[in-house]
């Protein structure tokens, strides 16, 4: 079977069904290739070059107990630059306090022993309005706890985050995490 294309009888081109199918298949492959290249460019272009680590750990059954320390290792390659450190927290709408106290343990590098520092994370305003980013019944927070911090030496640093509230377990806590980025 042949298909004729053209404006008049003298200008008509003859194509077989096989060559027409190959043309369509080639165009489809080109479209997929363009789509794949575009997706790759978008995904690699959206990475944060200053991020060293940005990870979260899910809290089992949303009940964070004292013994359940969230642990992260951070590899610092350049101690001459400053770093910003953030605590990541997600709570449900059932969280019953307007704040959260945590202990952050840090060791590694030039630290001969582990240091512990207590931080308060404000979760709600005095009127009870959640301060985090809400999605459904979840509220997310990323709170700076060290700004332009200089690590003492190149190497691996170990961080542990422990809840430090009176309730044990602390209910309605979904995720806890750590972000370390190069300061700009």
Structural Rg = 28 Å
Please describe the biggest sheet, giving its number of strands, its sense, and whether it closes into a barrel. 5 strands, antiparallel
| CATH architectural group of the largest domain | Sandwich
Q: Total number of helical segments? A: 1
Shape: globular
CATH fold group of the largest domain: Jelly Rolls
Spans of at least 5 consecutive residues whose pLDDT stays below 50 are: none
Keywords: Lipoprotein
Organism: Mucilaginibacter galii
Protein name: Gliding motility lipoprotein GldH
InterPro entries: Motility-assoc_lipoprot_GldH
Task: Please outline what is shown here.
By secondary structure, this protein is of the alpha+beta class.
Describe this structure in words.
InterPro entries: Motility-assoc_lipoprot_GldH. Keywords: Lipoprotein. This protein has about 180 residues and is of the alpha+beta class. It has two domains: about 1-45; about 50-180, Jelly Rolls (Sandwich). It has one helix spanning about 15-45; strands at about 1-5, 15, 50-60, 65, 70-75, 85-90, 100-110, 110-120, 135, 140-150, 155-165, 170, 175-180. It has a five-stranded antiparallel β-sheet with strand order 3-13-6-10-9, with no helix packed on it. It has a four-stranded antiparallel β-sheet with strand order 5-11-7-8, with no helix packed on it. The model has no long low-confidence stretch (mean pLDDT about 85).
């Amino acid at each position: 079977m042949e298909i004729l294309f053209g404006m008049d009888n003298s200008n008509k081109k003859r194509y077989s069904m096989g060559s027409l199918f190959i043309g369509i298949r080639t165009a489809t492959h080109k479209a997929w290739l363009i789509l794949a290249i575009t997706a790759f460019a978008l995904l690699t272009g959206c990475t944060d070059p200053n991020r060293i680590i940005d990870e979260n750990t899910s809290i089992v059954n949303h009940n964070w107990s004292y013994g359940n320390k969230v642990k992260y290792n951070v590899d610092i390659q350049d101690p001459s630059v400053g770093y910003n450190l953030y605590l990541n927290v997600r709570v449900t709408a059932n969280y019953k306090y307007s704040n959260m106290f945590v202990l952050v343990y840090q060791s590694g590098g030039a630290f001969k022993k582990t240091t512990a520092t207590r931080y308060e994370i404000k979760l709600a305003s005095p009127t009870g309005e959640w301060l985090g980013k809400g999605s459904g019944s979840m509220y997310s927070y990323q709170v700076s706890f060290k700004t332009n911090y200089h690590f003492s030496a190149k190497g691996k640093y170990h961080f542990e985050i422990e809840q430090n509230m009176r309730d044990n377990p602390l209910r309605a806590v979904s995720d806890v995490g750590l972000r370390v980025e190069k300061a700009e």
